[in-house]
Amino acid sequence: MSDAIELIIPNMAEYHLRNPSLQLKGEERARVVRFGGTYECEHSVFWTDAPRVLLLPQGWSQAWFDDIHKALDLAAPPVVSPRMRSGLLVDDLLHDGAAQNALRQLVSGYDVVKLTMVGPTAETYLLAALVSGWGHEVELDSVPEDAFWASLYLDSKVSCLDLARQLPAMRVAPGVVVGNWVELTGALRAMVARHGRVIARTLFGVAGDGSRVVTDAPGDVDAFLDHASGDSFFAFPILIQEFVEHAAGVGCPAADILVGPDGVEDVVLCALTVEHGYSFRSVDVGEGALPPVWGERLRAAALEVGEAARQLGYVGWMCIDCVAGADDQLYITEINARRSGSLHAGGLLRFWGAEKELTLSAHFMLPVLEGTSYEEHIRPVFQRLWDAGVKAYPTSIRALGWTDPIIAVIAAAPTADGAQAIIAEIRDSIYAVAGTPGQR
User: What region holds the ATP-grasp domain (predicted)?
Assistant: First the structure.
């Protein structure tokens, strides 16, 4: 055996479902399993160009996979796709002997197997033990099992409130944490009377699910309570904070942070686009994602939060989501103790060695008309761009067969405006040949 190989594990769905405090049910749970457990997994194709084996849930397109690697001038890695039993990638692998045997053969020539994942779950430690039993040294790119608590703790929105009492750069909006319906009702009425608009958020949400803005408009508090009572994301405790007005033209700053055993090793700047004040839609990634003054503030906060996490025993990728306030202050809204959804953009920047030169714009839910196909409508649009040397890619297409189909796309340019313009061109070109959603 020689050298090392990465086992790429896009375990987004089981990461979101890992916390025992979050007991999603029905449609809310099914949506997380389908979206995070299949659609978002395809972004992991772009995480790294290192020697690797990729875990992907069944249903990926071979034509798309081959096109992506040809466009990137990369050898396509082998893929293992366990039989879909639960829709949770690692759990399905642990219950599929044939997939385990295929994986064992693919890593057999390597001394070290590096588990590269979204974030740690109980199942990832079982997988590490399994691979170790095959005779390999196993390296985790996240916390060891005895520090798993730190990942759970940091991922809770309460951690922001705790760290804000300790860190100078950690500013949070004023708020209260409530533990039952009586407290929630009373606190909402008191907070909206004081601030006019608040945001109510559970400690563990997913891309805006588990958050909602509530105003002092007549009936709005009652409408929120009716909504929350039927939405399993809204489990107690619930954090209610003053809604921070967003600075115009900035987006919501965010940072991917690589925490090593001796300190912060990397910070990748991002700017999120959100709807309704909390629902995530797209992200610009790179040095050009934010105006310089906001980039400096964000980097200082990222270094401070990353060091605080390291002192708790945390290592690996994490991210912080923020609001650029209209009062010219940076507010941190949450910590995600995992790879963010935008880290495929960071992977491309590192692969190209263009961290300082390019900005990427990643759009995760570009709607397309029912009947749009990759081969007939999407591939020709991207092929023209590739022939012209444009760095743009469809990063997930498996939702083409869903009701209300969507695709995910990413584009790179020297500026964020330039990358967004390429995305707009891609959208318009697809609509020109396949039709515009909502027109039938």
Answer: 162-369
